[in-house]
Structures are given as C-alpha cells and as structure tokens.
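G., the chain you wanted modeled:
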Amino acid sequence: MTILYHRTSYNATIIWSVWYYFGTSATELLAQWSTLGSVSPLAWNDALSVSATNYSQLMVDMDMQLHFLDGLDIDVRIANSYGKNFLVVGETLYATMQSIEHGHAAFMIDWGDDDANPGNGFGAGVQSSTTNGTGATHREVLLDANVKQIGMGWITVVQPTSLNSARGPCVVTQHLGSKCREDLGTGLFFSGAILAWRCLPTPCW
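Predicted structure as tokens:
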C-alpha cells in the first residue's frame, strides 16, 4: 500500500500539519505497516451506513467525539438502528475531518499519543495497539480480516460553527461488521462503495 501526498496541495498541508503536530515517526509507522497483510475489499452495507449516520449525528448533537455516547455497545447500536445482528462489529470515528484524504490519513496513519499519557509528549506520534487499553486501533479495525462489510455516515457541519469537539466540517463514523457467512460478490458491492464516496457532500470532497 502506497500513499503519496504532494506537499503543496490543500490536503497535504492539512495532513502534514497534523503529522508534525504529533511528531509522527516515519520509522515507527513503517514498522507498523510492515506487519500488515492484504485483505479483501469491504462490501457496502446499508444497515451499517444507517447506524453510522445516526451516530455521527449524535456526536454533532452532543458536540463530543467519543464512543458509547448513547450508552450502548456497538452491536446493540447497529441492531437498534436497522434491526440487523452482526457477529463481528467495529467502529471508527472522526469529528474534525477536513476532507476524504485527511480522514483516510487519520485512520491509516493512526497518528496520536503512543501511550495515552499526554504528560510525556506524544512519543512516536503513532497510536500503538495498546493505546488507551482498547486493543485495536483504527487501522487494525479497518484491516481486520474478520470484518467483511462497511457502512459510512457523515454529517456536514456548516462553517463557521460554535461547536468545539464535533466542529467538522465533516463528522464521520464508519461501522464495520460480519454476519454468519460472508460468501459475497464483493467486487459488485465495492463499486457501490466508490459511488457512495462520490456522493459525499461538497464541503468534504
């Protein structure tokens, strides 16, 4: 997997500014990426998209970027939104996404504090698999071979805004899951996912 950003582009300016803010170590990032394996493309799932959109709206309403704002586990949240049960579920979210490229970089680089202790700086500037004791980071959830489907939900926040934590301009949630059996024609669904990306509201394109 290769991600290239021209340093003078709008998206690159945002990405590099966050990279330098956290002091992200290219050496550490390469070491973590070298452990990744290839996985099949994810199939689009409307039920997951509904639950993800609902949760993005909740973050805006509460002006917070946190999991479990509704007091529910992710599997219950998905079931309540669309009445579907999944054996494996995952969630990633970002309440200050500036663009698709910025959001993709945030999830795949997974910049942040490497030991959840802001008192000693950000360390390598890349979250480890034990950050905050959660086990899996955003990148690991997205590339987990056990999840086969994805649904994304985003809310566009009109700028300027009085919101602090969920200030956008895009607030995005990704819900991932797997049912009992996943013998799906993933290629067909993958085309649908690309179309869904193109339907993203203009301010976040």
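Confidence is low (pLDDT under 50) at residues 1-8, 130-136, 181-205.

Shout if anything looks off.
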